[in-house]
C-alpha cells in the first residue's frame, strides 16, 4: 500500500519531469526522505521493544526450566 508521502513524491517527480515545476531535485525527493526517516524511527522503536521483551521472555523461560530440576 502506498502512503501519502510516497504518492506526493511520485507527483513531484512527474511534475518535475514534465517541466511544470522548477524546484531542485532534493526538494522533489524530500517527501521520500521524510517517509524513510519515519519508517526508520518506527522500526527502530519497535525493534527495541521486541528486543527487550524477547530478553524478558527468555530469562523467565530459563528461570522456570532450571527451577524444576
Task: List segments where confidence is low: pLDDT < 50 over at least 5 consecutive residues.
Answer: none
Approximately what portion of the residues adopt beta-strand conformation? under 5%
Mean pLDDT, rounded to whole units? 88
Computed Rg: 22 Å
- Can you count the beta strands? 0
Give the count of structural domains. Answer: 1
Q: What percentage of residues falls in helices of 4 or more residues?
A: over 70%
- Helix-strand pattern, N to C? HHH
List keywords for this structure.
69 residues, 3 helices, mainly alpha
Protein topology:
Layout: H1 4-17, H2 25-28, H3 30-68
Helix pairs in contact: 1-3
In words, what does this structure look like?
83% of the residues lie in helices and 0% in strands. The protein has one domain. The mean pLDDT is 88. It is mainly alpha-helical. It contains 3 helices and no strands.
Short description:
This protein is mainly alpha-helical. It has helices spanning 4-17, 25-28, 30-68.
Amino acid at each position: 500500500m502506498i502512503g501519502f508521502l510516497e504518492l506526493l513524491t511520485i507527483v513531484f517527480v512527474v511534475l518535475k519531469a514534465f517541466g511544470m515545476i522548477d524546484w531542485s531535485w532534493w526538494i522533489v525527493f524530500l517527501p521520500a526522505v521524510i517517509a524513510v526517516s519515519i519508517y526508520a524511527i518506527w522500526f527502530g522503536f519497535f525493534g527495541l521493544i521486541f528486543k527487550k521483551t524477547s530478553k524478558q521472555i527468555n530469562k523467565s523461560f530459563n528461570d522456570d526450566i532450571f527451577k524444576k530440576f
